[in-house]
Design goal:
48% of the residues lie in helices and 18% in strands. It has a domain at 22-54 and 115-224: P-loop containing nucleotide triphosphate hydrolases (Rossmann fold, 3-Layer(aba) Sandwich). The strands form 2 sheets. It has a 5-stranded parallel beta sheet with strand order 2-7-1-8-9, sandwiched between helices. Strands 4-3-6-5 form a 4-stranded mixed beta sheet. It has 9 helices and 9 strands. 23% of the residues are buried. The protein is an alpha/beta fold. The radius of gyration is 21 Å and the shape is globular.
């Protein structure tokens, strides 16, 4: 009888613990082009179904294999500018002559439902998010192991013309100068090790006291039983 009672109490405790609600978080990954943030983003989305990608709107042309609504929402500049004026974007920036921005509504819905939203954005977008939603954000800057390796990766993916690659390399120095503005820094000299670092950061951020919206009630419930 005593063992049965203990098992029943244990099951009841587990059910109570599952009632602790959590507000979702915005996990930001930034890096110079070619350092690995997009690869790490794809790995995380595949491994963790509680994370969803924030799909940006952009005015840049669609690349081969990209799908509207999956990779980006591809729109014209006048529509983008209207979204800015109407306050429909959490952040936006101009990168290499193209406009990029994050729609506000789907992100706010996800956070309220306890889901985490992944952002693959640059330092300009990260700064804007920090101004409007700092308590919901955790930011990671991904470093390349070396500049020659960064250039090698850009050329290996064969997505951009030579002029674009040179522009990305020229801009890398400016992007690297913002590493200290981020909460965490991950060195991507080995993709599996870098991915493990990202997952550890996410796990720790999910356990932050301020994100556990049901924690106060749970603790008060424990205290009431004493």
């Amino acid at each position: 009888m005593a063992m049965a009672g203990a098992r029943k109490a244990k099951r009841k405790g587990k059910r109570a613990a599952r009632k602790i609600a959590r507000r979702g978080l915005m996990l930001v990954l930034s890096s110079p082009s070619g350092a690995g943030k997009t690869t790490l983003s794809r790995m995380l989305l595949k491994a963790d179904k509680s994370v969803e990608l924030s799909v940006s709107v952009t005015t840049r042309p669609r690349r081969p294999g990209e799908k509207h609504g999956r990779d980006y929402f591809f729109i014209q500049k006048p529509q983008f500018e209207k979204m800015v004026v109407n306050g429909e974007l959490l952040e936006w920036a101009e990168v290499f002559g193209n406009l990029y921005g994050t729609p506000r509504a789907p992100v706010e819905r996800a956070l309220a439902a306890g889901r985490d939203v992944l952002f693959d954005i640059d330092w300009q977008g990260t700064q804007q998010l920090g101004q409007t939603a700092r308590s919901d954000m955790a930011s990671i800057f991904v470093l390349p192991p070396s500049i020659p390796e960064l250039e090698r990766r850009l050329r290996a993916r064969a997505l951009d013309a030579e002029l674009v690659i040179r522009g990305r390399m020229a801009k890398a120095g400016d992007e690297l100068s913002h590493w200290f503005e981020y909460d965490y820094v991950v060195l991507n000299d080995d993709i599996e090790r870098a991915f493990a670092d990202v997952r550890q950061i996410l796990a720790a951020e999910r356990l932050k006291r301020e994100r556990l919206t049901g924690l106060s009630d749970f603790v008060r419930g424990l205290q009431a039983k004493l």
